[in-house]
Amino acid sequence: MPELPEVETVRRSLLQLLPQKKITAVEVFKPQIIAAGGADLAQLVGREFVDFGRRGKYLLFGFGGDERLVVHLRMTGKLLYHAEALPREKHDHVRFAFADGSELVYNDIRAFGRFWLTDEQGLTEVSGLNSLGMEPLDEEFSAEYWRSRVAKRPRAMVKAALLDQHIVAGLGNIYADEVLFAAGVHPERPIGSLTAEEDSKLAAAMQQILANAIANRGTTFRDYVDGNNEKGGYQNFLQVFQKKGQPCPNCGCTIERIKVAGRSSFFCPVCQHPPKSHE
Ligand SMILES: [Zn+2]
């Protein structure tokens, strides 16, 4: 599933590809992709993609006017640019045609992704967008911010808190596990048991790992590609995610997998001490 580094990489790739291309047609082949209550994408005909924003895992496009197109790729969504129009593929659900013969296609095998076309005010109606926590790469992000947001939930497990988009925007299962490993914190540790030093390590790891992952254009296991259909490179730098049974890069002990908050979690049982029974 695309997380912050993958969505940011898609944004950057489209920023290189789409400006100054006039939209000549918009086709929606699967109406469920368009969120209920949103405007008709056909009103974008004649416009150009001008603004390329991102908030958490949401892409936010502007067209020089009031329209705001919000896209969430969810599990398997891809925004693919083709320099020449291609025959429609099975899971192509939305298509923007441009005046120069190129196209932008939204392909999504699981079809969980969503488009919202609205205006600046209507962004408050986009599910989840308005309640996002701070971006770890925001200048104001800090260990103090993280502590302030989790302080009311001392019994919550730290992995669940990292995945909660209201607390920190953009982390998913891959980067949460990598952050916990880098900080030496077990995924099941209760928030209330974390020391100030551990909170600082977690905050620093969120920033370093996301920045490195963006620099390497995200992580590709199966589906993820950028707007140019290119895979990411950060899968070559992962320390624990999807590495059950392999040696820990720090201590050589075997990496384990458990379920935490309903998600597979990979960790080193030595470098990341399990919670004590009284925690
Ligand atoms: Zn280890």
Describe this structure in words.
The chain has 279 residues and is an alpha+beta fold. The protein folds into 2 domains: 4-125, N-terminal domain of MutM-like DNA repair proteins; 143-267, Helicase, Ruva Protein, domain 3, CATH 1.10.8. Helix content is 21%, strand content 20%. The chain contains 5 helices and 10 strands; from the N terminus they run αββββββββααααββ. A 4-stranded antiparallel β-sheet has the order 1-6-7-5, covered by helices on one side. The chain has a 4-stranded antiparallel β-sheet with strand order 2-3-4-8, with helices on one face. Strands 9-10 form a two-stranded antiparallel ribbon. A hairpin with a 4-residue loop joins strand 3 (58-62) and strand 4 (67-72). Helix 2 (143-150) packs across helix 5 and helix 4 packs across helix 5 (196-215). It is elongated and about 60 Å long. It starts with a helix and ends in a 12-residue tail after the last strand. 39% of the residues are buried. The model has no long low-confidence stretch (mean pLDDT 96). The chain binds zinc ion.
